[in-house]
Amino acid sequence: MSHLFEFNGAEGKGYSQPSPIMDVSKLKLPGSMRRESLPRWPRVSEPEMVRHYTWLSKRNFGIDTGFYPLGSCTMKHNPRVNEAIAQMPGIANIHPHQPESHLQGLLSIYHEMQEMLAICAGMDAVTLQPVAGAQGEFTAIRCFQEYFRKTGQTQRTKVIVPDSAHGTNPASASMCGFEIIEIPSSADGRLDLDALRAVVGEDTAAMMITNPNTLGIFEADVVEASQIIHDAGGLMYYDGANFNAILGWTNPGLMGFDAVHYNLHKTFSQPHGGGGPGSGPIGVKAHLAEFLPSPIVGKREIESEDEHLYAVDDCWYTWQTPESTIGKVQQWHGNAGAVVRCWAYYRRYGRDLKTMSEHAVLNANYLRHAILTKAEEAGVTHMFVEGAPINVCKHEFTISMSPAKESMGISAMDVAKGLLDMGYMAPTVYFPQIVPECLMIEPTETESKETLDEFATNFIKVLQTDAEALHESPTTTPVRRVDEVYAARNLILRYEMD
Fold first, then answer.
1. Residue 145 host element (H or E)
2. Dist CA 240 CA 280 (whole Å)
3. Where along the chain do the CATH 3.40.640.10 domains lie?
4. Domain spanning 81-352: which CATH class is it, in words?
């Protein structure tokens, strides 16, 4: 069966509703509220229903089922203790409209998370409200916008982004009404300072940049770039998509950034397969704190005996509104479950998060080297080139399949589909766009050497597959190649009953 509504067992099977406590036929309900026919619930027993959902789960790929080398969109292992904590009744079964006395435990978690995120990024204040990295970008740029309005610098209408930027960077700035100025990368894939100097002026509002960048390269000149922007009166925005590569080793504050967004669903383990749930808090320097979305969590001294009964660590936690807030960008504190899971991850590993970054970088460099070595051994080095001329990458790396496309008609998409047949989630394809026929690969820190070796071997096997056969991949998955453009433009989000 493909779904429960196509499966109906014998009459009388399945779950039975308890008898009503009153005779509903005597209720005088308006006609518009009455059913014209009985609901079409499927007739299935409990084991049949369990089998159905187990069957569905086996048709999907996730980090719990296999290696997930998705570059840039990092799919990390989520420790199960995080789930247990997020589902505790005192966390899962409360509502933000309850009295603050009911929320002290959870509010203390939010407050601590705000402080921990501020420290690790070198920022002064944090809001947990945004529920995606892109929404974090938008929120930070709105704070920039209000800062310039308050300081009388409304002539600052341009936001600078490198050509290697995530597409959400220019989109977020554009949504705020800014003009986007794109600058090219240098030959080594890094920021071109001369190109930056050429476009900076009195109308510069900000620069948005990821470090390491989307090629997996650390921007060694980022401090000088920050100085160029600040000397012109602009602000620096750090896209935290790749923060998991530097956590504990350096931070955006040291690099000269004024604001940063954190992808809790990347760096701090919150799972986000299938597009959500994500979380994209932002941190800002002190001069931007007054513009943060409302509310944030603050604390004060206990003021009464009643508060002593509910207080945590002899403090009273409370919702607060920044002086010049831009308002809400999401309900209350954003994605509560994501925040709690990431708080649990942060509390569990603490300073060991520096080791997490180290292992993420080590795994990426090891896998890159393993692929290059096995390709040389198999004599297929002519089929691809590295996406950037580097000796050491950070947490991810890029490969261009242009040579294979030109000589054999094998595209990056073909290789990605071939890897599906090998039992892997495909790497990111065609991003960043500055690398032709791009594959972006990120192994994350929790994968073993054995897993990386096996993937490198199978990657080379895919390249050795006959081109015509590779064009037909995947052949082992529940769904073959789909028309992605058609699917995106013609969404089917619910089942249509007969």
1. helix 133-150
2. 9
3. 81-352
4. alpha beta
